[in-house]
Structures are given as C-alpha cells and as structure tokens.
C-alpha cells in the first residue's frame, strides 16, 4: 500500500526522531549508574540498584546470590567460616579480650565440628 502523504520531506524528521530516541536510550542507560556513584557512600545506591536488578528482597540476599553465581567455592568457604565463628563466638570473645589485655598475640582453642 502506498502512502501518498509520506515523501522526502518527512525523511529528515523521522531520522531526527530516531536519533533522539537512540540518544535518550543511551543517556538513560548511563545516567542512573553515574548518579548513584556520585551519591554519598552511606546511601548505598549502587547496592540498592544491584539488588533490584538481581531481583532479591534485600541487599544481603543479592550479595549472596552474586557471590554464589560468580564463585561457588568462595561462598562455601565463607559459609563454613561463618559456621565456625558462630559456634565459637564466646571462646573467640574471651580470646580477643586476653589478646587485648596482653597487648600481644595469644593462642586460643576452638571446637570445629566435622
């Protein structure tokens, strides 16, 4: 079907509209990240943006998902270390107090379950 009302006169207008749309898409793909990085660190905007992109309800869960997907072995090591810390929290606190009072390194015993 021919469009008699379209001619060479509308070609520059259509090209200009396409150019503006492409510029707008480019601007909105760069601008939010740039603005987020310029905000104070305490606002955690980049982390909040990452959480939304990943689709997790909290920043912590988004971080866990990112670590698991990027380096599963590192995640397993972190989880194991957290388990050891949780199981020996009181013993480590006492050991930390001893080291602080002695103002030097001290040996401590902890329990590690298999």
Protein described:
With 114 residues, the chain is mostly helical. Helix content is 70%, strand content 0%. It is built from five helices and no strands. Helix 2 crosses helix 3 (59-70) and helix 3 crosses helix 4. The protein is elongated. The chain starts with 10 loop residues before the first helix and ends in a 12-residue tail after the last helix. The relative contact order is 0.05. The mean pLDDT is 87.
Name its key features.
single chain, 0% strand, 114 residues, 70% helix, 5 helices, mainly alpha
The Cα radius of gyration reads 28 Å
Class by SSE composition: mainly alpha
Instruction: Tally the beta strands.
Output: 0
Name the shape in a single word: elongated
Largest sheet, if any?
Answer: none
Give the topology, please:
Elements: H1 11-38, H2 45-54, H3 59-70, H4 72-87, H5 89-102
